[in-house]
Amino acid sequence: MVTYRIREYRPGDYEVVRDLFATGMSEYMPTLCVHMLKQPWLILVLACTFCLLLASSRSLLLPILALTLLLAVGRQLLGYIWSMYIERCLQEDLLDIQATYLDDKRSCFWVAEVEDCVVATVGARPSEEHQEELMLKRMSVRKDYRGLGIAKALCKTVISFAQERGYKSVVLNTLMVQREARAMYEGIGFQRYRHYVLPTVYGRLANCTISKYRYDVPSVD
Ligand SMILES: CC(C)(COP(=O)(O)OP(=O)(O)OC[C@H]1O[C@@H](n2cnc3c(N)ncnc32)[C@H](O)[C@@H]1OP(=O)(O)O)[C@@H](O)C(=O)NCCC(=O)NCCS
Questions:
Q1: Per its UniProt record, what CDD domains does this chain match (predicted)?
Q2: Is 123 in the pocket of ligand 1 (CB under 6 A)?
Q3: CA geometry: angle at 174 spanning 173 and 175, to 5°?
């Protein structure tokens, strides 16, 4: 039985928090590749390339080599785009965690630690759309400490904080690849209220869908 403790972020946690977030997000690369390979336009491009090369070369070798090359280049490109996304997050709120989350009493950042070692993170700050909504962000649990209820406990910490500070709800976004996270939020009682494809060129090409969730916080009285 692993015993963990949830506490507020301290400046000394900076590197491990950023690393936990980046590692957690990097893990989605294989799922992202599978997601891309299911896109009809990509299947069509690959099938047409294969058939055209087969018809023109009358050999299986060239189309197989060409497809392998295309898939390898695609994998590299996807990896590059995904790492740019992770880097952008690290340059946003995670660049100065203290200033973003702890210098304002309507925000907070927590870590879970096991034997003085930080194994999970979560942040919360007012949503940019509605100030009465608290946005849950940067939930990440180290791989070897998953399935122990740590994420659930961190979520509950955020909900209690929202209640204490008088927020009406806790909101969050998930990407289409974050299946475990969605199951966890739904298990706690978060309701999906919006689901849309990211309105950018990359978003449409990758069919990158965002699900927005909300948890209505009961008032204290
Ligand atoms: C999603 C994540 C935070 C879950 O952390 P965790 O500590 O393992 O979650 P918990 O142990 O608290 O599990 C809570 C619930 O999550 C769901 N869940 C967790 N792992 C799951 C899995 N592999 N498959 C399906 N559901 C899963 C279950 O509903 C579980 O409830 P149960 O134990 O009653 O069945 C963790 O997998 C993670 O850090 N992933 C990478 C980063 C990420 O995706 N963050 C979310 C950003 S929105």
A1: NAT_SF
A2: no
A3: 130
Cα–ligand 1 centroid distance for 51 (angstroms): 42
State the pTM of this model: 0.91
Q: Is residue 31 part of a domain?
A: yes
Using alpha carbons, list the distances in angstroms from residue 97 to 10, 91, 189, 193, 215: 9, 10, 28, 28, 24
208 in a structural domain: no
Q: What residues make up the domain containing 127? A: 1-170
- Report the atom number in ligand 1 closest to the C-alpha of 181: 1
**Binning pLDDT at 50, 70 and 90, where does residue 180 land?**
very high
Tell me if 121 CB under 6 Å of ligand 1.
no
Where do we find the tokens 């994998």?
A: 75
Q: What is the mean pLDDT of the chain?
A: 95
| Per-residue pLDDT tens over the stretch 74-113 | 999 999 999 999 999 999 999 999 999 999 999 999 999 9
| Minimum CA distance residue for ligand 1 atom 27 | 180
Mutate to test the pocket of ligand 1, among 180, 182, 210, 213 (most ligand atoms within 8 A of CB): 180
